[in-house]
Amino acid sequence: MKEYMLDLFKQIYGDNMGVRVFFAPGRVNLIGEHTDYNGGHVFPCALTLGTYAAVRRRNDNKIRMYSKNITKGSVIEREYGDFSIINKNNWSNYPYGVVWALAQKGIHIDSGFDVVYYGNIPAGAGLSSSASIEVLTAYMLRNLYGYEMNNVDIALMCQYSENNYNGMNCGIMDQFASAMGKEGHAIFLDTAKLEYKYAPVKLNNKKIVIMNTNKRHNLGTSKYNERRRESEAALKALQTKLPIKSLGDMSGEQFEEYKGLIDNPVQRKRAKHAVYENQRTIKAYNALIKDDIEAFGRLMVQSHESLRDDYEVSCRELDIMVSEGLKHKGVYGIRMTGGGFGGCAVSIIDSDRADEVVLLVGSEYEKAVGYKADFYTVLPGGGPSEL
Question: Active-site residues: which are they?
Answer without folding.
Answer: 174
